[in-house]
Amino acid sequence: MTYSVSFALAAAAALAFVAPAQAHKHKGHSHNSQCPAATAADIEGQFARFNAAWATKDPAKVTPLFAKDAVLLATVSNTPRTTPEAINDYFVGFLKNSPVGTIQTSTIAIDCKTATRLGTWDVALTNPETKAVTVVKARYSFIYKYEEGAWKIYHLHSSMMPEPTK
């Protein structure tokens, strides 16, 4: 089975980490609302976990990185993936391409229990039949939320660059 280059871009995924035990109170929230301590480096560190989950080629390792109510907008699917089962189903096919992501540019913003990472990346895909590697240049947006003691992907969207890149 041959996979389209744009298939890589639907690739989602991402990353969970246990926040440091230290937490601080956030202005505008009640005294009972704790915000996890997180830095840009913590959010950047999620990418290594993301690639590690992809490298297993096991959808059951990727799917738990997403929040329970996550949305995955896959490039090659007309259907938003809005359940853990639908997200897992997407990765069953996608991971056969041995995807490897490399961040090129990144902008990070962190709030009390949400974080965003937006930018550009390259996704290398290996055709499982021919072993030919294709690098897809794309833009991405990850929105994370802090859920059950870990950062989870709440929204992931990736799309191929609309103009030729160098």
Automatic annotation (TrEMBL):
Using the record, list the residue span of the signal peptide; answer none if the entry has no such feature.
Answer: 1-23
The residues covered by the DUF4440 domain are: 43-153
Record-linked SUPFAM superfamilies: NTF2-like
Q: Does the keyword Cell cycle apply?
A: no
Kindly state which keywords UniProt assigns to this record, in alphabetical order. Answer: Signal
> Has keyword Ligase?
no
Question: What InterPro entries is this protein classified in?
Answer: DUF4440 (IPR027843), NTF2-like_dom_sf (IPR032710), Steroid_delta5-4_isomerase (IPR011944)
Question: What is the protein's given name?
Answer: DUF4440 domain-containing protein
Q: Which organism is it from?
A: Candidatus Phycosocius bacilliformis
